[in-house]
Design brief:
Molybdopterin biosynthesis moeA protein, domain 3, 6-stranded mixed β-sheet, 438 residues, single chain, alpha/beta, Molybdopterin biosynthesis moea protein, domain 2, 5-stranded mixed β-sheet
C-alpha cells in the first residue's frame, strides 16, 4: 500500500516505547556486515572499496628518468653558466622515451633527452630546453652539434629517481579505501590490471498494495502508479549498490510470500508500505512470521513506523530486511537515514557521515508531538555572504514527493523542541553531497 495522505500531519501522542533515530540506526545496522571481496577489471573499480592492502612489487619509477625535455649535463661542466654567459657543450647523443642510453655522459658533453627517458650514467641534472639556446640555434639554422646552457642547475634537478613515487613492498593503498580516479592511475602504474574490491550489495525491492500499477500502464480508477519502487531503486543505485525490482505484492500472504521467496538471494530486502497503523494486517503478519522482524515506532517525522530484522534462508544465513512506510517522502527520508548507512556498511565504507551545515530558517518548523522533524528545504547562501539560509521547498505533507525532489537538504528540528521559528538556526543535512550550494 502506498499511502499518499499526510497522516504524519496529525497529532500523535508520545510513545514511551518509541526508539530514537540513533537507537533505530544502531539496531538496523546490527543486522549487516561487510560483504565478501571480488576481483574486477581495474577500470571498473572506480568508487569501489578496495578489500585488502595494495602492496607494490616494484619501484615507481622503476629507473632514474628525466622529468623534462632537455639536456642531461654534469654539474662540473655548467657551474659557471648564466643567461648572459652560457656554457657551450658538445651534444654527444639523444635518448628518447622508451630507449636506453648507448653511452655514458662524459666531460664537456651533453645528451639530448626526452621526458621519461632513462638517465645516462654520469648525469647530475637535466636542463630544460628553455634554459638553453636551442631555440635561437634552430631559428638561425646553426648546427645542433653543440648547445649553450644558460643555467647552473641544482644537483638532481629534473631527475626522477627510482622509487621516488612508490617503493617496492610499500603499502600504496590501504584496505577499505574508496578508489578515486588517481588511485586507478596509481594501480595501473604498478602494472596491475585487476583489483580485489568489496562486492556491491544486491538490494531486492518489493512494493505492496492492491492499488499499485506500473509506469507505462493505462491508469485505472482507484489505482496509483508505483513511484516508491523507482525512488528506492534510484537511491540504491546512487549509493553504490545494485537494485533489483522484484515486483508488487498484493495484499495477500500468498503474494507477499512469493515475492519474498524470490528475494532470498539478495543482500538486503526493502519493502514499502504495510508497516503503519491502518495497513493490512496480513502484510505485517507475513513480515513478522517469516523471521526476526520487529515493527517499531521511531521518534521522527516523517516515517514514524519502521520494520527491520532478518529473514532466515535455507542454507543457514539470514537476509536483512528494512520495511519502509508507504508515504513517498517517508520512503525518501528512511532511505537517507537508514538504507544508505546499511549499504555503506556492506560495501566496506564504514560509518557514513552526511555533510551538514548551519542555516537560518526562512520559515518555522512545527513540532506538535515531540518527534525529530526532518523538514525539506532549499539551502542557499545569504545575500550578505555571512552564512547559509534555508527556505521550505514546498508543502511538508508526506505525500508531496515533488518537494523532496526540489530540496537539497533536510532541516532538523530536535525532538525535545516545540518547534523552530523563522531566523532560528538549524542543522541541515545535505541531500546532494556532490553539488555546491550556490
Amino acid at each position: 500500500m502506498a499511502d499518499t495522505h499526510d497522516h504524519d500531519s496529525h497529532y500523535h501522542p508520545p510513545d514511551p516505547d518509541a526508539l530514537s533515530v540513533e537507537e533505530a540506526l544502531r539496531l538496523i545496522l546490527s543486522f549487516f556486515s561487510v560483504l565478501p571481496a571480488e576481483s574486477i577489471p581495474l577500470l571498473d573499480a572506480i568508487d569501489r572499496v578496495i578489500a585488502e592492502d595494495l602492496r607494490s612489487e616494484i619501484d615507481v619509477p622503476p629507473f632514474a628518468n628525466s622529468a623534462m625535455d632537455g639536456y642531461a649535463v654534469r654539474l662540473a661542466d655548467v657551474k659557471t653558466a648564466t643567461p648572459e654567459t652560457p656554457v657551450e657543450l658538445d651534444v654527444s647523443g639523444v635518448v628518447a622515451a622508451g630507449q636506453l642510453p648507448d653511452h655514458q655522459l662524459i666531460e664537456g658533453a651533453a645528451i639530448r633527452i626526452m621526458t621519461g627517458a632513462p638517465i645516462p650514467e654520469g648525469t647530475d641534472a637535466v636542463v630544460p630546453f628553455e634554459d638553453t639556446d636551442e631555440t635561437d640555434r634552430r631559428r638561425e639554422g646553426t648546427t645542433q652539434e653543440t648547445i649553450g646552457v644558460r643555467v647552473n642547475p641544482k644537483p638532481g634537478a629534473n631527475l626522477r629517481m627510482p622509487g621516488e613515487d612508490v617503493k617496492r613492498d610499500e603499502i600504496v593503498i590501504p584496505a577499505r579505501s574508496v578508489l578515486g580516479f588517481a588511485d586507478i592511475g596509481v594501480i595501473a602504474s604498478l602494472g596491475i590490471s585487476s583489483v580485489s574490491v568489496i562486492r556491491k550489495p544486491v538490494v531486492a525491492i518489493i512494493s505492496t498494495g492492491d492499488e499499485l500499477i506500473e509506469p507505462g500502464e493505462q491508469p485505472e480508477a482507484g489505482k496509483i502508479y508505483n513511484s516508491n519502487a523507482y525512488t528506492i531503486a534510484a537511491a540504491i543505485q546512487r549509493y553504490g549498490a545494485i537494485p533489483r525490482l522484484i515486483g508488487v505484492a498484493l495484499d495477500t500472504s500468498e503474494s507477499l510470500n512469493q515475492m519474498l521467496d524470490a528475494s532470498m538471494d539478495a543482500d538486503m530486502i526493502l519493502t514499502s508500505a504495510g508497516v503503519s497503523r491502518g495497513d493490512y494486517d496480513v502484510v505485517k503478519e507475513v513480515l513478522v512470521s517469516r523471521g526476526q522482524i520487529a515493527i517499531h515506532s521511531v521518534r521522527m517525522k516523517p516515517a514514524r513506523p519502521l520494520a527491520f530484522g532478518a529473514f532466515p534462508t535455507s542454507d543457514g544465513h539470514a537476509v536483512p530486511h528494512l520495511g519502509l512506510p508507504g508515504n513517498p517522502v517517508a520512503v525518501a527520508v528512511v532511505l537517507e537515514l537508514f538504507a544508505r548507512p546499511a549499504v555503506d556498511l556492506m560495501s566496506g565504507r564504514g560509518e557514513s557521515k552526511r555533510r551538514t551545515v548551519q542555516a537560518k530558517l526562512d520559515g518555522p518548523i512545527t513540532n506538535r508531538d515531540r518527534r525529530r522533524v526532518y523538514a525539506r528545504v532549499v539551502v542557499y547562501r545569504s545575500e550578505d555572504g555571512s552564512g547559509y539560509r534555508a527556505r521550505p521547498s514546498g508543502g511538508q505533507g508526506s505525500g508531496l514527493l515533488t518537494t523532496m525532489a526540489r530540496a537539497n537538504g533536510l532541516a532538523i528540528c530536535p525532538e525535545d523542541s516545540p518547534g523552530l521559528k523563522a531566523d532560528d538556526q538549524a542543522t541541515v543535512m545535505l541531500l546532494d553531497w556532490s553539488t555546491p550550494i550556490i
